[in-house]
From TrEMBL:
Species annotation: Bradyrhizobium australiense
InterPro entries the record matches: GYD/TTHA1554 (IPR014845)
Organism taxonomic ancestry: Bacteria, Pseudomonadati, Pseudomonadota, Alphaproteobacteria, Hyphomicrobiales
Protein name as it appears in the record: GYD domain-containing protein
Pfam families assigned to the protein according to its UniProt record, in alphabetical order: GYD
Length: 97
């Protein structure tokens, strides 16, 4: 599995319908399942980003397809960060010269 931290901001359309955001989050979780992606956590946040989501995807292609499908709905713009666990990082640095 590939883990991502997805940072999202509401678009003008998304903020106008912010009351629907919890319902949209549930629909997003169902959409993610169709691509084999699990939404581990989803938080609404204050500050620079409106929503922070932690995803587990079977591969990068699945995560990309989900993000493009979400963006096409027009409610949020996303920035995805590939995340590595402590075990992943230990393995990575173990290969360093």
């Amino acid at each position: 599995m590939v883990t991502y931290v997805v940072l999202a901001n509401f678009t003008d359309q998304g903020i106008r319908t912010a009351k629907d955001s919890p319902k949209r989050a549930e629909a997003f979780k169902k959409m993610a399942e169709t691509f084999g992606v699990t939404v581990r956590e989803l938080f609404w946040t204050q500050g620079r980003y409106d929503v922070v989501t932690i995803l587990d995807a079977p591969d990068e292609s699945s995560a990309m397809t989900l993000n493009l499908s979400l963006g096409a709905l027009g409610n949020v713009r996303t920035e995805s960060l590939r995340a590595f666990s402590a075990a992943d990082m230990a393995s990575i640095v173990g290969k360093m010269l």
